Amino acid sequence: MKKTALVTGILGQDGPYLAKLLLENDYKVFGLVRRYSNPNFSNLEYLGLMNKIEFVEGDLTDESSLINIVKNTRPEEIYNLAAQSFVGGSWDQAKLTTEVNAVGVLFLLNTIKFFSPITRFYQASTSEMFGLGNTNGFQDENTPFHPRSPYGVSKVYAYWMTVNFRESFGLFTCNGILFNHESPIRGIQFVTRKITDGVARIKLGLAKELRLGNLESRRDWGFAGDYVEAMYLMLQQKNPDDYVVGTGENHSVGEFVEKAFLVAGINDWKKYVTIDPRFKRPAEVPNLKAKPDKAQKVLGWKKKTSFDALVKMMVEADLKRLKSVKIS
């Protein structure tokens, strides 16, 4: 009999890659979509998954809907990937960010506690929780949190709630503290996809410049398709725990920009890039780099995709997409 999994955030970036992995492991996958919204299924279509997932309607801010979903689907695993995840936007939508990212997780955990305590739970935590908690040039499971945005703060609340439900009620709950992970289906508002889309537009003559904020920020960037494997492995362990997931190396936004232009065959990238103060955050996080030793040792997880391969994958995907739009 197939195992069942409920994936929130099924329409985002990570949801489709995780659903693909679960289906390959013979799961029945339920995907949560918000009520009263106009859902965009393009990311699932990109991976050819539209007819392979059963969609259920609900909302993380509506606890009764979560109770009904869990009662009806009886998932053995829940992967909570849903969030207001745009860091810059969290300043303008602090209340919404808190309701979804923090209180929504509390609702999910309460639902598991009261109605399905055998369900294993994965919480999508983030390196943004560390913020300025960088004391050794890297971040691991022992690095203190010092978030620098409403998004980071909301995720710290969700992290500790996940830990507390594990320690207080014996639930199988895990935090995956994932560092930046990207793909061709990354949201266009995120800097990496903004870069690759912008570079492709310049290459094809559809744009003349790329406007960005801080080029000095350094991030640990990996491929989302690799990182969902770590999520899955966490819920297959004998005991629940929390893990940092990243590549162990970092690069500046400027490096990402330069490599993206080189993939497109453009060497003099600086003449196309304009620094726009509007895109700078009120409080910057200058340097994030994972130390994923625990995930490598306990889970047996390691990255498969290099930084250069990731940039190439994303630029080529945007070139292909924009060429087809231009032709049509």
UniProtKB/TrEMBL annotation:
Q: Superkingdom of this entry's organism? A: Bacteria
Q: Which GO terms describe its molecular function?
A: GDP-mannose 4,6-dehydratase activity; NADP+ binding
Q: What are its GO biological-process terms?
A: 'de novo' GDP-L-fucose biosynthetic process
Q: What is its EC number?
A: 4.2.1.47
| UniProt KW keywords | Lyase, NADP
The job of this chain, per UniProt, is described as: Catalyzes the conversion of GDP-D-mannose to GDP-4-dehydro-6-deoxy-D-mannose.
- State the organism named in the record: Candidatus Roizmanbacteria bacterium CG_4_9_14_0_8_um_filter_34_12
Q: Does the keyword Zinc-finger apply?
A: no
Protein name (database record): GDP-mannose 4,6-dehydratase
